Amino acid sequence: MNLKYFFIFSLIIFSNNLISQNVSLTKIKKTDYSDINNWAAHPWKKDLSDSISEGIKDRRINDSIVDVFFIHPTTYLDKDFVEWNADITNKAINDKTDQTAILYQASAFNEQSRLFAPRYQQAHINSYYINPIVAKEYFDIAYNDVKEAFEYYLKNYNNGRPIIIASHSQGTTHAGRLLKEFFDDKPLQKQLVCAYIIGMPIPDHYFPTLKPCIFETQTGCFVGWRTYKNGYVPKLIAEENFKSIVVNPLTWDTLETKAPTNLNKGGILQNFKKIVPKVVDAQIHQNVLWACKPNVFGKIFFTKKNFHIGDINLYYMNIRENVRTRIDSFNKSKK
Asked: Which of 89, 116, 218, 281 has the highest Cβ tally under 10 A?
């Protein structure tokens, strides 16, 4: 046997043995999306996606003319876990999802939109660090939930309304598949205002026809970025052998010119009630977005170089404003 393939075969066997020794194989369960409790955000119930920071309450528009389908990032982070996919009835995981992703991320899209965010059997964070052939099963289970939730939404709620797809991290892993399956070169693409698919690489050849947004009023396109400290590129990303699409959330173009902090309308960090203006700058560098240290009290002690957790929060107000701009542009194009 070729040494290369022997190594791969051995790695797969080792990974499977490791999994069987420590974690149970995921039991496939069907999620009922007619049950409103299986949605982290839904227009028919009050949830944290409805939250408005005190600094922008007077800018809330109650006339919801667009639907946002938001796919949340990984919140299944337990060190001692027994299955590779989360149980969507797990209160601790659901509370973490609601108090982080739904409050601090999904709420950025609530100004004039109905917001739908399904709970799904998300893959455990470690799924990103094991053999991808093994991990595929766990991501497929998660995506199947997302897909079924979206199909339920289309059948029961959409009624031809414009759609925004929004996601972060693992959510973007699934959003990419969803866009390919339902929008890319499909009739539904005509209803797409924009896809904000953030926190994961998007190879420039990933979508056959769906294009990246290169100006702020463009619709029927997608944006994405991964945020790191100025000057830092992780080894894993430096070794990527493809070009990833990166859109600057302060200028909404793909140019490598630095956008200064005075273009940042405000981020929301640990205190949801407070908007922090000019919190970071933004510059596209190859496959990532570079940003300066957040401009907050005590920043001298801030040592993180990976700003992944703040991909949306750091540009919260710019995203919120851009959603409004693209909705206006989409509506004008249909008149």
From this structure: 116
